[in-house]
Amino acid sequence: MMKLNPDSFWKRVDNILKEQNLSLRDLADGIGASMQSITAQHNRKCMPKTEQLLAMSRYLKVELEYLIVGKASRFTERIEKIAYACMKADEVDLKLVEKVLGIETPADVSES
C-alpha cells in the first residue's frame, strides 16, 4: 500500500496553484472546504481525506495519480504527445490517433 507523503503532496499542490494563478482560499472555496481545514492540512498537520483528494483533482484539473504520486499515467503521456503532434500538423490523422491510443473512433467522427 502506498503512503501519501504530505510534504511532496503539498509542494505539488503549491506548484499547481501557482501555475493556475490560484490561492489556497480559491482551492478551499473550489472544493467546498473551510479555509481553516485547508490551512491545517497545508501546514502538514493532516492529509486530505479521499473525498477532498478527488475534489482537489477535479478542481485543479489534474489526474488524481499526479496529485498523489507526482506522475501522470501512460494514457495522459500519450495524449500529451498526440496533442503536441497535432499542433505541429496541418491535418490530424484519426487512424494514427486510434493506433497510438489503442482505441476506435466512432464512425460519425472518422467520416467527417
Distance from first to last alpha carbon: 46 Å
Structural class: mainly alpha
Largest beta sheet, briefly?
Answer: none
Gyration radius from CA atoms, angstroms: 18 Å
Measured by DSSP, the beta-strand proportion falls in: under 5%
Percent range of helical residues: 55-70%
Pick out the low-confidence regions. Answer: none
What global shape is seen? Answer: elongated
Mean pLDDT across all amino acids: 79
CATH topology of the largest domain: the name is: 434 Repressor (Amino-terminal Domain)
Structural notes for this entry:
- With about 110 residues, the protein is mostly helical.
- It has helices at about 5-20, 25-30, 35-40, 50-60, 65-70, 75-90, 95-100, 105-110.
- Helix content is about 65%, strand content about 0%.
- The chain is elongated.
- The chain folds into two domains: about 5-70, Orthogonal Bundle (434 Repressor (Amino-terminal Domain)); about 75-110, no CATH class.
- The mean pLDDT is about 80.
- The protein contains eight helices and no strands.
- The longest helix has 15 residues, at about 75-90.
- Helix 2 crosses helix 3.
Quick recap of the structure?
The chain has 112 residues and is an all-alpha fold.
Topology of helices and strands:
Layout: H1 6-19, H2 24-31, H3 35-42, H4 50-60, H5 64-69, H6 74-88, H7 94-101, H8 107-110
Helix pairs in contact: 2-3
